[in-house]
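Review form for a predicted model. The reviewer records the input and the model, then writes brief findings.
Reviewer: anonymous (R2)
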Amino acid sequence: MSHIFISYSRKNQTYARALADELLRRGFDVWIDDQIDYGDRWQKVIFKAIDDCAAIIILMTPDSLESEWVEREYNYAHKRKKPQFPVLLEGEEFPFYVTAHFVDVRNGNLPKDDFFVKLQRIIKPKGSRGEEITVQIPVERKFPLILKPDWVGKIIPAPFEWCVIPAGVVTLELSGYDGDYLTQQQTFDVPEFQIARYPITNAQFEVFVTAKDGWRDPQWWNYSDTAKAWRAQKPQSEAADFKDCADCPRETVTWYAAVAFTRWLSAKTGEKITLPAEQQWQRAAQGDDGREYPWGNTWDASKCNSSESGIGKTTPVTQYPQGASPYGAIDMSGNVWEWCLTEFQTGQIDLNGTNVRVLRGGSWLNYPQFARAARRGNLYPNDRLNGIGFRVVLGSPPT
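Model under review:
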């Protein structure tokens, strides 16, 4: 507890500011809200400032008597047994206090020295000017919250955007496959992160394939001996197969190559970009309500590219915006299965070894049950098959 809280009606802001400046001049730290209008969303901020204060000054005027917020602040401070210093600025009475309790400044002047001496008995002023405690404004975010990096169009082509995924929990179900690291349904805490709105496209991956400092550069593959060995057999890169669709998701890409791409893109952008852990992937697809599919609980073939669509191949990543997840991520059901960092047999997220890795989301080849947000698949990291692609995340995975 290190500061003095000033409670006042907005109509008395000029005097409140002058009093705050005098307190600061005398070496007291001060919390005063003279920059924002009150509203219910500020309640936690205000109450936290009162919790942390050493004393509260209340400016008494007819306007403050009518102020809901001044009354709230008085009542909250009273319950917290905070020392209170009422200052009568206007009017004849203030029912919260007896007459003898307050300091009379109805002449418009600042309190006399003895008022500040009384404050010093509660909180010792600094030998220098006090500090004004900054108002901590809570950020109200509306989701989907979509961000476009400034490097899009310079390093890789559009479409590329980040979807902000707030911190939350996710429950993983059993896969039904042998070797699953989960032996029962398990819930995980997932810190906030950002996930690519779309899977990585043919055109985006091809930048990595053809760049002089891309696929051919050994540094992107030195994260494990098995990755280096696999790449040594593919010195010229995987052949491009756009299928007349540059904006379709890249498929027939191995886990090794997907990781190498994230390492290259991280170096080019200066950001920490990886494949998602499967907890991150599912949280981005499901949101807070545990829905069956990214768009809700009812299957709808018009919202993703699955076998029921009858298309028989990948589609542009922007084709199904109506199938977006609660946070704006698109194509999280169907089109291509997506590689995750997570080892299927251990649950670890390190980059070493040849263990199978988790796949999520289903593809254009699969039935609706494989497109469920909680469905968990797996594949060996060197497998390169139709319907297998990836998207990327920004931010540390859960531990």
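Findings: DSSP finds nine helices and 16 strands in the chain.
Further findings: The longest strand covers residues 53-60.
Recommendation: see findings above.
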